[in-house]
Amino acid sequence: MAPALPANVRVFEIAAATVAARALWVAAEYGIADHLDNEPRAVAELASATQTQPDPLYRILRLLAAAGVFEEHDGRRFGHTEMSRTLRTDHPTRTRAAVQMLGSDGMHRALGAMNVSAQTGGTGWEAAMGEPIFDWMAHEPAAAALFNDAMIGIHGGEPPAVAAAYPFAGTVVDVGGGSGNMIVNVLRQHPEARGVTYDMPHVVAEAQRRFEAEGLTGRARVEGGSFFDGVPAGGDLYILSHIIHDWDEARCVQILKHCAAAKAAGGKVLIVEMVVTPPNVPHPAKMLDLVMLTVPGGRERTPEEYRELLAKAGLRLTRVIPTASPVSVIEAE
């Protein structure tokens, strides 16, 4: 086995990761993967196809190839790897959108202002962009569309894992359910369940099209509205998937109270989030927590922190169910 790297080198590798991340963003932004097929292509051809310069592009792709993204061949030619194929626009994982969003100008500036969050507790996004992220996206439709696509890229493996981990039944209301991805996966795996995707009216239009395409209109429907005003009444299960981690505690309690008041007798509230692991135990939740701190102003939580938050909304945490993905299902009644 190779000897462990010196401590200073391990620290430097963390700092230098931003260089590789930026190179990856360039490859995604210019759609390099879309211009590759089964045979390697010369970097000069890729540069011409993407309106970039051959030498800088070669140096960027050379670094990515060393990390397993693309493969370098003789004559400055590059071909696909399993990793690079996920960057194609038509790849079902939507990885390209996720990389584009994480490396976008707004995210780059917001994460660059993490020191503001450390100093003030406010968001780097608002310091960099002048207003909260969801207000900003309301008048930036292209960025909002990329964000929605990126959420599938970042969290796309979670809905089937959640659907497999929990015994869904009755009427399932996905609060802030976006394009309907969670409900589609729940109904696929639980034929007796019915679903409602609830989100802003302009958002749920996409969910309606998805339900029609999946042949689910007899079991699934959409409702438009804001979860700060209320949620559809009478559901047996209310899912909050990556909703609670976006907001400050007061607004989290407000959303949870709406769900508690709306649910049918015996109904439950299900929070789908990453759960922060004990000290010194690695988990993606600890990285995502800093994104929440810096961008929307929310946070990831430990099981005990969820217990305390739920109690403020009149709910009791009953169990935390792991899934075959980084998220867990936090069940409350």
Could you please describe the fold and organization of this structure?
The chain is an alpha/beta fold and 333 residues long. The protein has 3 domains: 7-91, Arc Repressor Mutant, subunit A (Orthogonal Bundle), CATH 1.10.10.10; 102-152, no CATH class; 157-332, Vaccinia Virus protein VP39 (Rossmann fold). Helices cover 49% and strands 15% of the residues. It contains 16 helices and 10 strands. It has a 7-stranded mixed β-sheet. The protein has a 3-stranded antiparallel β-sheet with strand order 1-3-2. The longest helix has 23 residues, at 7-29. It is globular, with a radius of gyration of 22 Å. The model has no long low-confidence stretch (mean pLDDT 96).
Provide a brief overview of the structure:
The protein is an alpha/beta fold. The protein contains 16 helices and ten strands.
